[in-house]
Amino acid sequence: MKTLDDVQDDNYIPEYANSDELENWIFNNLSEGSKILEFGSGTGTIELAEKYNVTSVEDNEEWLYLAHDSTYIYAPLVNDWYDWQALDILKNETFDLILIDGPSDLTRRTGVFDWFQANPKVFSNAILMIDDNAMESTIELPALFKDAGWEQIHQGLSAPIIEKQNFSQLEPHFGVYVQNHECPECGEEFNRSDDMIECCANL
Ligand SMILES: C[S@@+](CC[C@H](N)C(=O)[O-])C[C@H]1O[C@@H](n2cnc3c(N)ncnc32)[C@H](O)[C@@H]1O
């Protein structure tokens, strides 16, 4: 069984793990047992998997199976993002929260948007968390989701780049986003598609 000793080598960067603020936001806003899909796993996965039903997409074999309670999907990088074929197993699933903290190269993270567009059902009930969302090199991804109708409901630590110019690249920060699903019968809006479907179903 894999242990921390197996990953704490020369490439180990403690700051890569989810920040306490990010983790606490999840603990305070997501009920225990909820389903989380994370892109990019690490030591932070161990704590999440103690409370939640976690599925971890991971491209680096060294980081597979560290959290014994998480379900790992090994998806090597193909054309700059995770192998879509490896993710096929997810296409009929839904999650309560989707956390984007991989691949490790920040400039490769926009690939998740194409996958979202091809698999909207997977995201239909989810809160979206984008780690490192406010760097010059990463602001494209939240902008794509916002253009597609996602609304930002929280900014962790750093203000978005437009309001704060000189923050350190290592300063932890994250954004939280939701979709609005409008009931076609009554116009009420819901963040979870399943709640919208139930809205006027029994009239
Ligand atoms: C930012 S890390 C993801 C960290 C994860 N969200 C966590 O809380 O531990 C992105 C990628 O870097 C690798 N990785 C994870 N933890 C690492 C660490 N402490 N040091 C170096 N690389 C790490 C994995 O391949 C992972 O997919």
Notes on the protein architecture:
26% of the residues lie in helices and 22% in strands. It is of the alpha/beta class and 203 residues long. The chain has a single domain, classed as Vaccinia Virus protein VP39 (Rossmann fold, 3-Layer(aba) Sandwich), CATH 3.40.50.150. It has a 7-stranded mixed beta sheet with strand order 3-2-1-6-7-9-8, with helices on both faces. Strand 1, helix 3 and strand 2 form a beta-alpha-beta unit. Residues 159-164 have low confidence and may be disordered. Bound molecules: S-adenosylmethionine.
**Average pLDDT, all residues:** 91
CATH topology: Rossmann fold
Distance between the termini: 53 Å
Q: Please count the helical segments.
A: 8
Attached small molecules: S-adenosylmethionine
What general form does the structure show? globular
What strand line-up does the widest sheet have? 3-2-1-6-7-9-8
SSE class: alpha/beta
Percentage of β-strand residues: 15-25%
What is the total tally of β strands? 11
Task: Enumerate the spans where pLDDT stays under 50 for 5 or more consecutive residues.
Answer: 159-164
Helical coverage, percent range: 25-40%
**Biggest sheet layout:** 7 strands, mixed
Q: Quaternary arrangement of the chains shown?
A: single chain
CATH superfamily: Vaccinia Virus protein VP39
The top-level CATH class is Alpha Beta
